[in-house]
Design brief:
The structure holds 2 protein chains of 2 kinds.
Chain A lengths: L3 H13 L1 H35 L7 E6 L17 E2 H10 L3 E10 L8 E3 L2 E3 L2 E5 L3 H4 L2 E6 L4 H5 L4 E5 H7 L10 E4 L2 E11 L5 H5 L1 E5 H7 L5 E2 L1 E6 L5 H15 L10 E5 H44 L1 H9 L4 H40 L11
Parallel strand pairs in A: 6-11, 8-10
Antiparallel strand pairs in A: 1-13, 1-14, 2-12, 3-6, 3-13, 4-5, 4-9, 7-10, 8-11, 9-10
Helix pairs in contact in A: 1-12, 2-10, 2-12
Chain B lengths: L1 E12 L2 E13 L4 E5 L6 H8 L7 E6 L2 E2 L5 H11 E4 L11 H12 L3 H14 L15 H14 L4 E5 L7 H16 L3 E5 L3 H5 L3 E6 L2 E7 L10
Parallel strand pairs in B: 3-8, 3-9, 6-7, 7-8
Antiparallel strand pairs in B: 1-2, 1-4, 4-5, 9-10
Helix pairs in contact in B: 3-4, 3-5, 4-5, 5-6
Classes of the chains: A alpha+beta, B alpha/beta.
Chain lengths: 378, 233
């Protein structure tokens, strides 16, 4: 089908009218370029926003206690209560769809006072008491040493894993943090690891964080068996939103909270927030495809127009070719192959050009530092 | 070589019907050089279109070299045209973005002749019409007479049984016309059957037989004393 003669015929016909060929090719080129750029922009925006969610397992929710607003079973309203370690067991037992249920304790945090001392240095950091599986909910890169383990939990070791910025603030430049002690709220803890937040939403806060075993935290800071709050991740197949009602119902029941008391247990559904943003971008993606398809369509109309003119203009030539023995199919395939070749080449050029533009944009954006957008607030 | 019996053709335009050919009977033997004359509207172009298989008759029979030409589809017609016929047009109809050589080679391309052989053959026919040195020129770089000679070489390239020439000298001045006619006479001398449609009496006199058409009928069909074009050049 594509012998050298065919190529010669096609190339001769295409080079016969260079300007027309160029215009046709440009129509396709432009259509493809715009389509690719549009899709790249919508995808880029989506990636940028989802990156702000960090790689925290997005199928997660957080839950904390807030005090009852309804009297129930002889208990007054306005009663404070807190989750217990038993609640974690209850949740794991009663709701098999849950993958991780991590009880957490927190100390310090936003605008907190200085709470960490090492020698002459002091600093204010967020202190968390956690279980080992928390690292699977919020992935982080361990730079040195290790994360907390179940043996730390069981023997309530006074150990901690500190963030990169903690190291920067509390240690001299080439000092080794591993094996040293930091004093947190008056209690000494052995540093067993350092970490870097891996691509998370709020990297600055994460790098200013210290993790210690949950049980150690409870004992050292007098929390008994209470739980500050919980981070719950559902298994991959099920959305955490679908089991949220069940979780809350279970918790209300075990803490003698009125079943209709919505405000007693606060929660934040990351999956739902993520889904909402994702939905927005799905719509944006559809719009991108739609507009792109329209642009492409106008390119197609342009091509068909020009091919029509080409055929009209070459009626005489086609007549001559037929008189010389060209069968109708030979002529049709010639015209088709001409347009096909033109479309494929200009399409590929369009894709390459769009890729190049995207590359340049990326380069400029990378050089202008991190981009903060609205989704960070989510 | 060509046998036509009781050929009828009419065109329908809306409710009007135009009876163009009203029963043509006409034979051409091998090696003849025939001119078909007639005023415009006499049906000579229609006759040529039917002879060239570009159009089909309503009734009557047409046999070309013992092959009955009927019930043609486009593919068969293209094949027959390629094998049996060579066309020469008034306006040359060379493909303007192809060199003289490529133009001559085009019918061979449609015959599926190999590249090398095609170029050799095309060159041979270009030499025959005396344009070997112009083989790589585009039609726009050739004079009218040269273009028509390239067109004649192209018509000869597929070695057809019959050459059909539609006013081959219509776009040329007298001197060039005679040169072209000289070439056509030379080709006829070698035994090729040639049909020329013309309305110029002097051109018709250079053929061996004149067929006169009027209102769709042959009113005169006579052999003539051939005048050699070389005598005028």
């Amino acid at each position: 089908m594509f012998s050298r003669d065919r190529w010669d015929e096609i190339l001769q016909a295409l080079t016969a009218n260079k300007f027309r060929t160029f215009l046709t090719a440009f129509g396709v080129f432009w259509g493809i370029t715009i389509l690719v750029l549009l899709l790249a922009l919508t995808n880029g925006l989506r990636n940028g926003v989802t990156a702000d969610f960090g790689n925290f397992a997005t199928n997660s929710m957080f839950m904390w206690t807030q005090g009852t607003t309804k009297a129930y079973k002889g208990l007054p309203k306005g009663r404070r209560f807190s989750f217990k370690l038993d609640d974690v067991e209850t949740l794991k037992r009663e709701i098999p769809e849950l993958r991780y249920v991590s009880p957490r304790h927190q100390l310090g945090g936003f605008n907190g006072a200085n709470n960490v001392i090492r020698g002459t240095k002091t600093g204010a950091f967020s202190i968390y008491g956690d279980y080992p599986e928390y690292i699977k909910q919020q992935p982080m890169d361990i730079l040195q040493g290790r994360f907390i383990s179940y043996s730390d939990i069981d023997s309530k070791r006074k150990v901690c894993v500190i963030g990169q910025d903690v190291v920067k603030a509390m240690y001299d430049k080439d000092e080794d943090a591993l094996g040293t002690y930091v004093k947190i709220n008056g209690v000494n803890f052995l540093v067993i690891g350092t970490f870097k937040a891996s691509n998370s939403g709020d990297q600055e806060e994460d790098a200013n964080t210290i993790f210690m075993p949950f049980t150690t935290f409870g004992q050292a800071f007098n929390r008994g068996d209470s739980v500050g709050w919980m981070a719950i991740t559902a298994k991959d197949g099920t959305s955490v939103t679908s089991v949220k009602a069940k979780i809350l119902e279970l918790m209300r029941a075990s803490h003698k909270v009125h079943p209709d008391d919505e405000r007693a247990i606060g929660n934040f559904d990351l999956s739902e927030a993520f889904g909402r943003v994702n939905g927005l971008f799905s719509i944006l993606g559809v719009v991108g495809y739609f507009v792109g398809a329209l642009v492409l369509m106008s390119g197609i109309i342009g091509i068909s127009n020009i091919m029509l003119i080409v055929v009209k203009e070459r009626t005489r030539e086609i007549g001559v070719r037929r008189a010389l023995g060209a069968s109708p199919w030979t002529i049709k395939s010639q015209v088709l192959q001409e347009s096909l070749l033109l479309t494929i080449i200009s399409g590929m050029v369009g894709i390459s050009f769009a890729a190049f533009v995207i590359f340049i944009l990326n380069y400029i954006l990378d050089n202008s530092g991190p981009v903060d957008n609205f989704a960070t607030q989510v | 070589m060509i046998e036509i019996k009781d050929l009828h053709k009419s065109y329908h335009m809306g409710s009007n019907s135009l009876h163009v050919l009203k029963g043509i009977n006409f034979n051409v033997k091998e090696g003849e050089l025939v001119s078909i004359m007639g005023s415009s509207g006499s049906g000579k172009s229609t006759l040529l279109n039917i002879l060239g298989m570009l159009d089909e008759a309503d009734s009557g029979s047409y046999t070309l070299g013992n092959v009955p030409i009927k019930n043609l589809n486009e593919k068969i017609a293209a094949n027959y045209r390629n094998k049996f016929l060579g066309f020469i047009f008034q306006s040359f109809n060379l493909i303007n973005y192809k060199s003289a050589l490529d133009n001559v080679a085009l019918p061979l391309y449609y015959q599926g002749v190999k590249r090398k052989e095609r170029a050799d053959k095309a060159m041979h026919y270009l030499e025959k019409v005396g344009l070997a040195e112009w083989s790589h020129h585009l039609p726009s770089e050739l004079s009218g007479g040269q273009k028509q000679r390239v067109a004649i070489a192209r018509a000869l390239a597929s070695d057809p049984k019959v050459l059909l020439a539609d006013e081959p000298t219509g776009a040329l001045d007298t001197k060039t016309s005679y040169e072209v006619m000289d070439l056509i006479q030379g080709i006829n001398d070698e035994g090729k059957t040639i049909l020329i449609v013309t309305h110029e009496p002097d051109i018709a006199q250079m053929t061996k037989r004149i067929v006169n058409l009027k209102d769709g009928l042959i009113i005169d069909d006579s052999k003539v004393e051939q005048i050699r074009a070389s005598a005028h050049v």
